[in-house]
Specification:
The protein has 108 residues and is mostly helical. It has five helices and no strands.
């Protein structure tokens, strides 16, 4: 069982490396932050020190150069961003907005 300080240090280390890896770009930084928060706040989650260490190594490699790790991280964040966007907006809301635009264009 890991101590609370060890978990906090791991979280901060991962967060810092994530921000450097995504180069503080606006959409990516919020997606990465939300995903990391969700992973650490999951109720039944068990802290695995070896997995955390491998993740930190992966993030450090993504920070160092724009190689395979950086591209993998970029694609993971992009996929998660679009998944979140689909959940956030409902099709009925999109339909209402489209209908309003069409009605407005008709009366112009």
């Amino acid at each position: 069982m890991a101590s609370k300080t060890q978990i906090i240090h791991t979280y901060r280390h991962m967060y810092r490396n994530l921000m450097q890896a995504v180069q503080h770009t606006n959409p990516a930084r919020w997606v990465a932050r939300d995903q990391l928060r969700a992973a650490f706040r999951e109720p039944g989650a068990v802290f695995d020190e070896k997995a955390s260490k491998r993740t930190i190594w992966f993030l450090e490699a993504a920070v160092k150069e724009s190689g395979m790790e950086h591209k993998i991280l970029k694609n993971l964040i992009r996929v998660n961003r679009f998944r979140y966007r689909r959940k956030k907006y409902s099709p009925s809301g999109y339909f209402k907005q489209t209908q309003w635009v069409l009605n407005y264009a008709f009366w112009m």
